Amino acid sequence: MTDPLLIAALAVRENSRAAYSHFRVGAALEDVTGRIHTGCNVENATYGLTICAERVAVFKAISEGARDFRRLAVAADSDTLTPPCGACRQILWEFCGDIPIVLLNPRGKSETVPLKALLPRPFDASFL
Length: 128
Description:
4 helices; 5-stranded mixed sheet; 5 strands; alpha+beta
């Protein structure tokens, strides 16, 4: 594997705090300048306060001034490739639009899907 985005997603997965689920996830978001913003899932005993890797990556990117994005990689150690949850899909749509989402695992399995395929009828500002 030589793609820096995929390498970053796999690497940041190691930083996850998954003390309860033991399901570590890493995400890497590439902005239009080529900069990669990473995030990992951080669990809390109060599960509702847990935050997913994808949202951490998006919020870090936004806080660092990035506004336009090319693609996202999501890495989890599962045989079945793991897509973003519903809340993350909505956040991704709001801040990234219909970007390619690369799903991967540490064993080299991967698949790329457009966000629109994961969230076919997104809610956005056009409904306000």
